[in-house]
Amino acid sequence: MVLDSKVPGGPLESKWERHKDELKLVSPANKRKFEIIVVGTGLAGASASATLAELGYNVKTFCIQDSPRRAHSIAAQGGINAAKNYPGDGDSIFRLFYDTIKGGDFRAREANVYRLAQVSNNIIDQCVAQGVPFAREYGGYLANRSFGGALVSRTFYAKGQTGQQLLLGAYSSMMRQVNAGRISLFTRREMMDLVLVGGKARGVVVRNLVNGKLESHSAHAVVLATGGYGNVYFLSTNGMNSNVSAIWNAYKKGAFFANPCFTQIHPTCIPVHGRYQSKLTLMSESLRNDGRVWVPKSPGDRRPADEIPEKDRDYFLERKYPTYGNLTPRDVASRNIKQVCDEGRGVGSTGYAVYLDFRDAIKRDGIETIEKKYGNLFDMYEKITGQNAYKTPMMIYPAVHYTMGGLWVDYNLMSTIPGLFVLGEANFSDHGANRLGASALMQGLADGYFIIPYTIGGYFAGTSLEDINNTHPAFEDSKRQVDQRIERLLSIRGHKTVDEFHRELGKILWDSCGISRNEMGLLKARDEILALRDRFWDDLLIPGRKEDLNQSLEKAIRVADFFDFSLLMIEDALHRKESCGCHYREEYQTEEGEPKRNDEEYAYVSAWEYQGDDSPPTLHKESLIFEFVELTERSYK
Amino acid sequence: MKGLNLTLKIWRQKGPDDPGHFETYTLNDVPPDISFLEMLDLLNEKLTLEGKEPVAFDNDCREGICGSCGALVNGVAHGPLKNTTLCQLHMRHFKDGDTIVIEPFRARPFKVIKDLIVDRGAFDEIIKAGGYISVNTGQAPEANSIPVSPKDAELAMDAAICVGCGACVAACPNASPMLFVGAKISHLASLPQGKIEAKRRTLNMLKRMDELGFGNCSNHRECEAQCPKGISITNIAKFNREFFKASLFSHET
Known about the structure:
A: Flavocytochrome C3, Chain A, domain 1, five-stranded antiparallel beta sheet, 20 strands, B: Ubiquitin-like (UB roll), Fumarate Reductase Iron-sulfur Protein, Chain B, domain 2, five-stranded mixed beta sheet
C-alpha cells in the first residue's frame, strides 16, 4: 500500500483554499441523513462535535468522564499561538509555519503545518466571540506573550488556565447543540473497539463505565479525538484516565500508527517526590519568560540556593544558547536538564531537579508584577511542594507531557481506514518530532473547528455507504471479542495490582525510551517488557466484577493495551537511526552533543501497519518533501 | 519525614439503591508529601491485595482544574485547606493519629453512583439550557474589533475559573447551585459579546435549575467558603441583578 497524503498541488499559501473549493459538498437536506460518532470531548472533539452539529449533521459524542468539560485539554496552562502579529514584532503566517516546522525538526508535513498557521487566526476570533476571557491590555485589546522556540510574542492566554477557558468555550458551544437536539451525548463511556463494515469505519463498541454493559453505536463516519498516550510511562502530566486504547483498537483494525516513539518530555514539571507519586504536574513553560534555569557549577554542591553566590552558579541554557536562552524549545531544555543532573549537579533531595529562579525578575519588575503574571502557578507550586517560590527558587525536572505520534492521517485528517478521522493529539500530523509550546491547543481547535467540517463532507459526497445499523453482525462480533478479553483479564486472579505492573512498565520506558535512547537500552527494554507482559497476564489481580463500576478493571484494560503499544514504540525508536527533535539517539549526535538528523535516509513519517498479535508490524514510509522550506540544522544558539 | 498513622471512616455504597454505610480503615506510615488522592490510592492498593473492593472515587487531572474529584472531608467539601481541590490537598495538612471522615457530596440532584462518586449531570443540564453565547463556527468577527476593558475581562475570568465540581451544592444547606450558575451568568454578562442574550440565558438557566430540584440561595455563604477556586458570592448578586433585569424587561419566556 502506498501512503497517499492527498496534499493538493499549487503554491503553499493557496493549497487549503483550493482544496476547500475542490471538495464536494453535501446539501443541507442530506446532512441530516448522516450520523457521525465523535469519541473524546477535549478541544478537538468538542469543537468538532459543535461545528458538525451546527452544519446539520447528527452527532453522537462520547467521553469517559462524567462530563465532557473534564477532558484533559482543560489542564493546558500557558496559551495558544496565532499569527495575528498584534504586537507588530514581525510575526506572520509564514513565520508561525516556519517556527512550527523547524521546532518539529523537519519531520512534519509542510502543507498541514501551513494550514494550521493559516487557521490559527480564525481560532482566536472564534474563541473571543464565544466569550473566552483572554488577557487584555489597558486599551482593551488582546495581550500576547512569548513562548519557547519563538522570537516573537504570539501567544494568547487566559491567566495560567488557557486550556480550561478554551475548552469551556468549545464545551458550551457543544452543549448548545445538545440542547438543539443535534448532538446525543454519552458520558462515562469508554471506546472498546472500532467497527468496520465493508472496510469502512461504521461504528464503535463502548463500555458503559457505570454498569459495565457493552453498547454498539453505528454511524456513517467515526471521528477519534481521544488524546495522547503519555500515560504509557505511568508518570506523566496527562490526566489519570488518558490512554492509548481507542487509537490502539483502531490500529488493530487497520489504521496505521505514525511515529509512535515521538514523545515530548516537558522541561518544567514538579520533580518526583517518591514511590507513591501518581502523576506529575506541569509548571507552564511561560515561567521561562522570567525564570532563570540554573544549577551549581560544581557537582555535589549541597548549599541552599541563596547561599550559592553568582560565580558558583551555571545558567546553563543562557550559556549554551545565547539567542534563545531560557526559551529554547522543550526537547533542547529537557535534554540539557537531564545532562546537568547526570553530571551530579542536580539539586533537591533526589538530585534530579534544577532551579527555576525568579529572584532577578522580582528585583527587576517587583513582586506584584510577577504575582499578576504567574500567581496561580506559584500557588499551585506551593500547594504541592509546601514551598514559597517568591522566596526560594522553584525546583523543576522534565516529565512526559505530550505525544507527537499518533494515527497516520492524510491532508483530510482521514486515517488509512476510510471513514475514520483522527483529530488533535490522537493524530500525528502537525508537530513532527517536537511540538512547540502553545501549539497543541491551536492544533486541537484547528482540526475541530476549521478542518474536519470541510473534509468530512468531501468524504460523504464521494463515497457510497451501505445502509446499516447497530444490529449488523460486525457489532456482535466485536462485542464478543471485547467481552472475551475482559473475561480473560478478570479470570487471572493473581497477586499484583494493575498499578504495580503499570509503574514497572513506565520505569522501563522512561529509562530507555525517554529523554535519550540508544540501541542497547532499547533492545534490553524490549526483552524486559515482553517478560513483564507475560507476568501481567499471569499474575494480575482485579477485584470486583465486570457488571459494575470497576475502576481497577478500567485501568487493567488500558494497561493491557499500553503493554502491546509500548513494543511498537520501542520498534519505532530502534528503527529510526538518527536523532531528531525529542528522539535523541545517543549514537547520533554532533560533536557538541546536539542531535544529528539524517535527512538522506530518515526524512519520512514512519507509519506502522498491524499484522496480528504474533507478527511484527510492517513499516510504511511517507516521504517528507520540502518544497517551500530549506532543511537546516536546527540551531537555537 | 515521619509517616502518618491514620484512621479513615469512608462512606461505602454499592449503588444508587444501596443505603450505604461507613467503614473504618487504618492506614499507617502515610508520607506527608503525598496528595489526598494518592493516600486513597495507597488505601486501595492495600484493599485490593487484601481481596477487598477498592473505594471508588472520580478523579482525572489531579491538578485542580478538571473538577472531577471532590468529597466531604470531615464535613467540608474538598477538605480543610481553603481554595484547594481534593487532589491538591496534601497529607502534610493532617496530623499523626488523625481520624478522617470521607463521604460523597450530598445533595438531592446529585445521586450517589458508587462510594464517593456522584452524578453531577445536572450541571451539564443547566449549561445546556443557556450557558453559552450563541455563535456558530465561522461567524466570528476579527478578535480585536470589540475591545474589552481589562477590568471586565478580569471580572469575567474570575467567574469563568469555576471547575464545575459541585462543592457549592454540597456545602449549601439548601443544595443550591447558585454559585455555579451565578459564575457562568456573570462570566458571560461581563463581556460585551455575552450581554446580548443575557436575559434569555438567565431565565433559561434558572428555570432548568428549578426543574432539576435544586434549592435556592438563602445567603449562608457556605458555597463561597468551600469553593476550591475562591469564586466570590458577588457573582450571585450579579446573577440577581441580571435576573431582576430579565424578569422586569424581558418579553421572552
